[in-house]
Design a protein that fits this description.
This protein has about 120 residues and is mostly beta strands. The protein is built from no helices and eleven strands.
Length: about 120
C-alpha cells in the first residue's frame, strides 16, 4: 500500500511562508485526489486544499489566496505552499490520499507553528 509522508513544518513568524511536502512511497496516481487537512489543538480536522489526479484544485475560504497546492507527478509528491502565515494557521498539517474506491491513506502529520 502506498504511504504518505509529510515534511516541511516548523516555527515561523507571522507573515512568513513554509513549503509543506507530501511524498508518496509509490505512484501518486494511485490516488484520485490528494488533500491537505489541518487540526489545531482542541479543534476538528479541517480540509484546506485538494488536488485531483487531473490537476483540479480546491481551497477552503480560510486559506484561499494564501496557500497553493501543487503536484509533481514525476516525484510522486504533492506540495502545499503556505504564504502570509497567521497565528491562526498554527496546527498539525496532514496529507490525505483518496482512492477511487473511497479508501483513504493518511500521513503522520507535520506541525506548523506561527508565533512572534
Amino acid at each position: 500500500q502506498v504511504q504518505l509522508v509529510e515534511s516541511g513544518g516548523g516555527l515561523v513568524q507571522p507573515g512568513e511562508s513554509l513549503l509543506l511536502t507530501c511524498a508518496a512511497s509509490g505512484s501518486i496516481f494511485s490516488f484520485a485526489a490528494v488533500a491537505w487537512y489541518r487540526q489545531a489543538p482542541g479543534k476538528q480536522r479541517d480540509l484546506i486544499a485538494t488536488i485531483t489526479d487531473r490537476g483540479t484544485t480546491l481551497y477552503a475560504d480560510s486559506v484561499k489566496g494564501r496557500f497553493t497546492i501543487s503536484r509533481d507527478n514525476g516525484k510522486n509528491t504533492v506540495y502545499l505552499y503556505t504564504n502570509s502565515l497567521k497565528p491562526e494557521d498554527t496546527a498539525v498539517y496532514y496529507c490525505n490520499g483518496r482512492r477511487t474506491s473511497g479508501i483513504e491513506v493518511w500521513g503522520q502529520g507535520t506541525q506548523v507553528t506561527v508565533s512572534s
